[in-house]
Automatic annotation (TrEMBL):
Coiled coil: none annotated. This is UspA domain-containing protein. It comes from the Bacteria. It comes from Niastella yeongjuensis. Residues 1-144, 152-276 form the UspA domain. PANTHER family: SENSOR PROTEIN KDPD-RELATED, STRESS RESPONSE PROTEIN NHAX.
Length: 280
């Protein structure tokens, strides 16, 4: 069974991401796993003494379980029981527990909310979501605040056309495109004034390899021009009503420019498009 894992801290942003996940799950007949990771709050004083717990472990655990069950109950009612929904309450560190559940379930994706404050790290649900993108091997879909699910008909794939054979998770990309019956747009950004806006055939060997690997989903190729990768991709995505943009983290390469603080302002301020991070 296809499974979507949805971590929640019960905030409005995470609940919005959960609502998005519920609608997606209904559209593709997937199951949902709600995950809440808790730890015991401690208080610190200026005095050189050990931190003291403010509530008992059992109280924190009971609260986590009860809130998850209430959330699950409401979702079952909203969906009329049409999808399978499970809840998981765990003690520990969020990323470690999320990684463990992903290894156990091998989900189609993790869906998380994003906090649109300042800096790209906060935009993607603070350090938790940023660390999930860095460390969780399964795909992570980041949902901007206020974004609702309206189907996925157009998918963008940000690509630098470098080492595509080794770094492109082709099967996952094709499976997602086929799952939603979507059109795929391969987006490449060049800092050239005379670059073409779009082109029909790939023009480098890596692009040729990618085209061959994605042949059965018939991708569209779009050459974007601009000094700022994020701005260029965001502008195209919003102008052309893309529903999802895929990025592939690469160490010290394309993803660095995409996630660089100085280039994230436009995405944080204006983008309302889910981003899915898929590892090579």
């Amino acid at each position: 069974m296809k499974t979507l894992v949805v971590p929640t801290d019960f905030s409005s942003v995470s609940v919005n991401a959960l609502n998005y996940a519920v609608d997606m799950a209904q559209a593709i007949n997937a199951g949902l796993v709600l995950l809440h990771v808790y730890n015991v709050p401690v208080s610190f004083t200026e005095a050189p003494v050990a931190p003291v717990t403010t509530v008992s472990l059992e109280e924190v655990k009971r609260s986590s379980v009860e809130r998850l069950e209430e959330l699950k109950k409401n979702l079952v009612m909203v969906t009329s029981g049409k999808i399978q929904i499970y809840s998981e309450s765990r003690l520990g560190e969020p990323i470690e527990e999320l990684e463990a559940i992903c290894k156990s379930l091998d989900p189609m994706a993790v869906i998380m909310g994003s906090h649109g404050a300042t800096g790209f790290e906060r935009m993607i649900m603070g350090s938790t979501t940023l660390n999930a993108i860095k460390h969780i091997k399964c795909p992570v879909i980041v949902i901007p605040p206020g974004t609702t699910y309206h189907g996925i008909k157009k998918i963008g794939l940000a690509c630098d056309f470098e080492n595509v054979v080794q770094s492109t998770p082709v099967e996952y990309i094709k499976n997602i495109v086929k799952e939603f019956g979507a059109d795929l747009y391969v987006l490449n950004v060049q800092d050239k004034k005379d670059a073409e806006t779009d082109w029909e055939e790939p023009s480098t060997m890596d692009a040729v390899y990618l085209d061959a690997m994605l042949e059965d989903v018939r991708p569209n190729y779009v050459q974007l021009t601009g000094k700022n990768v994020v701005d260029s991709i965001t502008s195209f995505a919003e102008t052309n009503n893309l529903d999802l943009v895929m990025v592939i983290p690469k160490k010290h390469r394309f993803i660095d420019s995409l996630f660089h603080k100085s280039q994230s302002k436009e995405l944080i301020t204006h983008a309302h498009i889910p981003i899915v991070s898929i590892h090579e």
